[in-house]
Amino acid sequence: MENLLDLNFLIESFPAIISRLPVTIGIAVGSLLLSLVIGVAAALIKIYKVPVLRVITSIYISFIRGTPLLVQIYLVFYGIPKIIYFLQSEYGWLQSADVNSIAPEFYALMAFSINLGAYLSETIRSAIESVDRGQFEAAKAIGMTPVQMMLKIVFPQALTVAIPNLGNMFISTIKDTSLVFIIGVIDIMGQAKILGSRGLAFFEVYIAVSIVYWILCIAVERLLVKIEKRARRYERGIA
Amino acid sequence: MIKLEKLHKYYDRQHVLKGIDLTVEKGEVVAVLGPSGSGKSTLLRCINFLEEPTSGIVEIGGKRVDAATAKKKEIFALRTATGMVFQQYNLFKNLTVLQNVSVGLTSVKRMKKDAADKKGIEMLEQVGLSSKLSHYPAQLSGGQQQRVGIARALALDPEVLLFDEPTSSLDPELVDEVLATIRRVADTGKTMFIVTHELSFAREISDRVIFMEDGVIIEQGTAEQIFTKPAVERTRQFLGKAVQG
Q1: B94 at interface of A, judged by CB pairs closer than 8 A
Q2: CA distance B226 to B245
Q3: How many CB atoms lie within 10 A of CB A33?
Q4: What is the CB neighbour count within 10 angstroms for residue A114?
Q5: Do B88 and A134 touch (CB under 8 A)?
């Protein structure tokens, strides 16, 4: 009799898949951090209407929103080595970089940072703009520099507003990292694919990997609730 | 000492301040009265360049800033020479009461955290809130928030304190505690510039009263003069029942 599932194979595939969790989490967390930097910069450029950069930022955001993530990953994977090679041969820059030794994880990190940065910038922009004008005025009135005002007063308040959105985007990113196997990164998805073809049991490994993603996302969601609660502690009034 | 010379402010084509000239002596308490839209808040906000005057000169403690050529550094100097208390308190929501008062000391005056905390606590004792150091603004009443606002402004030892309708957003029963705090500060000899609707308070606390309408100073004099025998009919009209004599 034909079995629906090779349950043993499914269970045995877990340790190997989980061993690749650091890759998945590393790309997701790394690109979240990098994209926050990109997102804040893009948001500030738009808020302060910086000439030229503002146009570039708008094109960047529009392009990222208007093209598939998969295509963006390929663009980064094939584009960056070409650009580095071009800079080396034409200008003699970046001589120490060896294009052939760049790990595919690096390209994945770049692609996801660039992608997420564009989406985060709009969230961050509206969060910064939601901070009460009076907060800016009070900071200016005591003589804070614009940088101090942003770091000590505006960003902490904007971040609190943005956390639910940032969290949702982070969870999407975790799931989207399942695309990175196409450029040779062995994340949990890549590992599942390898196991599947080795044992010719694809249904089993994909069930296993989906469970790993699911649990990971639930854990992150729980963590986000805690972070949000903590960030919002100053909003609890007496009433 | 504050000196304003020919201060003009336009919003687009609306002429809000029409050449204000004013000198405030050290230790003087000046109350600015006038109907809504008279430009009194704008005048106050032009002193520390929260609103940039269109033209004119602001001088505080010898630092002269011409609006036409004002550089960031000069504006910064004006802001550190002034302390501002806002109508909506504008306490930093993400900081505790103590941090609200000490953040200016650590970031603007580059004081060490310990020293800044010590001074912050001292300031909060002055406004009677040293028991709320680790509360957040949202956990305080409006009157308490405004007292923290006063402590925050005082902490930086400004040459002059600017009050922008400090009691206008408060519930009536909370007004007195804030007025009492302002009165205590006035008694220490601080130079103060108060835009207010509290006529009797203005009369009691100020050395000089300025009456503004339509972007110009219509009349000024000692509180006694303005409230007992205003020279201008419009002032008498505005003060209404508060005028005696």
Answers
A1: yes
A2: 11
A3: 10
A4: 20
A5: yes
What CATH number should be reported for the domain holding residue B79? 3.40.50.300
Q: Write out chain B residues lying below 8 Å of A147, CB-based.
A: none
Q: What is the pLDDT of residue A219?
A: 97
The confidence score (pLDDT) of residue B243 equals 66
Number of structural domains (chain B) is: 1
Give A140 to chain B, closest Cα distance, Å: 7
pLDDT digit string (tens) for A111-169?
A: 999 999 999 999 999 999 999 999 999 999 999 999 999 999 999 999 999 999 999 99
Q: How far is CA A89 from CA A81, A101, A169, B54, in A?
A: 12, 17, 39, 55
Give the number of residues written for chain A: 239
CA B205-B79-B183 angle, 5° bins: 15
Distance in Å, alpha carbon of B226 to nearest chain A alpha carbon: 31
pTM summary value? 0.86
| Total Cβ atoms within 10 A of residue B53 | 27
From the list A138, A131, A127, A152, the residue with the least C-alpha distance to B145 is: A138
Domain that holds residue B149: 2-242
- Domain limits, chain A: 23-147
User: In this structure, how many other beta carbons lie within 10 angstroms of the beta carbon of residue A237?
Assistant: 10
Question: Which phi and psi (to 5°) does residue B83 adopt?
Answer: -120, 140
Looking from the CA of B123 toward its CB, the CA atoms found within 13 Å total 27
- CATH architecture, range A23-147: Orthogonal Bundle (1.10)
Residue located via tokens 């009076």: A134
Chain A CA closest to residue B138: A237
- Maximum CA extent, chain A: 80
